[in-house]
Known about the structure:
Layout: E1 24-31, H1 37-46, E2 59-67, E3 70-78, H2 87-96, E4 99-105, H3 109-126, E5 133-138, H4 150-159, E6 164-166, H5 174-219
Parallel strand pairs: 1-3, 1-4, 4-5, 5-6
Antiparallel strand pairs: 2-3
Helix pairs in contact: 2-3
This protein binds guanosine-5'-triphosphate.
Residues 31, 33-39, 51-53, 55-56, 80-81, 138-139, 141-142, 168-170 line the site of guanosine-5'-triphosphate.
Enzyme class: hydrolase
Keywords: Hydrolase, Nucleotide-binding
Pfam family, one: Ras
Amino acid sequence: MGERSHHMIKRSGSGAKDVRKLNRARVVVLGHPGCGKTALCVRFLTRRYIGEYEPNKESTYTTDTVVDGETIHLEILDTARKHQNEKVSLDASIKWGDGFIIMYSVTDRESFSAVKRIKRLIDAAKETLGIPVIIVANKRDLDRSRTVRCAEGQELAGELSCPFFEISVADGYDSVASVFHRLIREVKCEFLKHLEAMEKRSKILNMRNVLFRRRRSKTQ
Ligand SMILES: Nc1nc2c(ncn2[C@@H]2O[C@H](COP(=O)(O)OP(=O)(O)OP(=O)(O)O)[C@@H](O)[C@H]2O)c(=O)[nH]1
């Protein structure tokens, strides 16, 4: 996985099995303008739904949340409209993140079409497989104005191998929390895979060093 320097790993006392714990994670919320990114972040942070937000505003929020009994410190980047067309700054935001929410509105086909493009940007910027990405369809309360069927969202998510949620930020907090918690679980899972790969690599290097030293002592 990408840069992991900001993560802290807690280890238990001597003799006990090491406990690897992800203490912090960075989440980036991406999506076409007006799909509800700020509403999603504010709902998660405050449990409240506020109808209108300043558009085009990029914000970073921090919060502590408990997932599966473990507290995790989250930094959440709510990307702004300008970013959707500015590849360089979007790249920087993507490199910063550990996990991603790509959002669209079920009332806006254009926002649905943007999902694939955004996913490609994430894959290109991270240059590695297994980046945790969740696709979120929002505004399901506006069923009469719906232009994207739930099945289309599910199909797209399947194609991109991402978990999928269809929610209404306006309607409640629980589904919003489920999105963030699922993403944190995915980030944790990738983090552990990354640790295991590093440990395996260091074991192989150690073995090579031991063999090398043995061979040298024999020839001396
Ligand atoms: N009916 C309904 N409206 C919503 C929902 N979520 C957000 N909205 C409304 O959609 C509009 C845009 O929401 P924002 O959260 O500002 O969207 P954004 O993606 O942050 O927009 P930009 O900052 O312009 O990129 C606001 O008027 C919200 O009140 C929802 O679940 N249902």
